[in-house]
Design brief:
- By secondary structure, this protein is mainly α.
- The protein is built from 4 helices and no strands.
- Helix 1 packs parallel to helix 4 and helix 2 packs across helix 3.
- It starts with a helix and ends with a helix.
Length: about 100
């Protein structure tokens, strides 16, 4: 349905924001982090396998009605916390750099 298309679009935007955040942090620290809260690409692949298996056994309607509407909340919270932690780290790096220049 049209509502599901919008939900999937918002999920795409959220995961795009994860990529942008990783790219910006890499430019600042020269450290590439692709895992969030110890959940990396392999765990996400396993999650997709479980979702596909659930769709096979429970049907697409179950996924559309029960899981998809709530699948935005968890990634959005993880993104918010991750960005907050990264901003805190960037602030610390900035303060250290200012102290180094002043001293």
């Amino acid at each position: 349905s049209d509502q599901n298309k919008y939900l999937l679009f918002f999920i795409l935007i959220i995961f795009g924001a994860f990529m942008v955040s990783s790219y910006l942090m890499f430019n600042i620290t020269n450290e590439l982090e692709i895992a969030y809260f110890k959940i990396g690409p392999t765990e996400l692949r396993l999650l997709l396998i479980l979702i596909n298996t659930a769709i096979i056994f429970l049907g697409i309607r179950f996924f559309e009605e029960k899981i998809l509407p709530y699948s935005i909340i968890l990634p959005l919270v993880v993104l918010a916390v991750s960005v907050w932690r990264r901003q805190k780290r960037i602030f610390e790096i900035d303060l250290t750099e200012k102290e180094r220049r002043a001293g």
